[in-house]
Design brief:
The protein is about 30% helix and about 15% strand. It is of the alpha+beta class. The protein folds into two domains: about 35 residues; about 120 residues, Alpha-Beta Plaits (2-Layer Sandwich), CATH 3.30.70.3270. The strands form two sheets. The chain has a three-stranded antiparallel β-sheet. Strands 1-4 form a two-stranded antiparallel sheet. The longest helix has 14 residues.
Amino acid sequence: MKKKMKIRKIINNLFFLEILRGLALTLKHLFVGKVTIQYPKEKRKLPVGYRGLLSLLRYDNGVEKCVGCALCEAVCPSRCITVKSTEIEGEPLKRYAKEFYIDITRCVFCGWCVDACPVNALAMTPEYEYAVYNKRELIFDKQKLLSMGDKAFPEREKPIEAQHLNVAAFNTTRKWLPPHGEEGR
């Protein structure tokens, strides 16, 4: 058993079999087609589930979708999202995000904030080309996020009241509908 190991080691050392195996692997890849993309001129096709920069979305009437619930802030593993919400004047049951900030330098692009949003106000854009000289420019505010959402998702959905009319009975903005529970009176 030891003699076979010694003979095998001598043959490997004499004929440089490891080097020949490495050269064979190199020659095998030498005649394969190119895989390099000339980046600025050629863009790479992104996969369907690609998670790029975060954006805020609007309804088709221009109203922002975010209700300021801060679930995205709570679920974020890197704590890069900050949401400050407030009530709409005259409508105490409705809230909106007064301030929304995200620090892209801390974001890990996991998509948990998008999954946690109950009104689908957040989306990951296919944008990956965002280079700046000053990293303070990578702290996006609400207006920047809304503009990125408008650019990446030009088709918008209708407000929830227009999609599901039974929800309108709980909406305080529709004054002509009776309050919940007073239909039979």
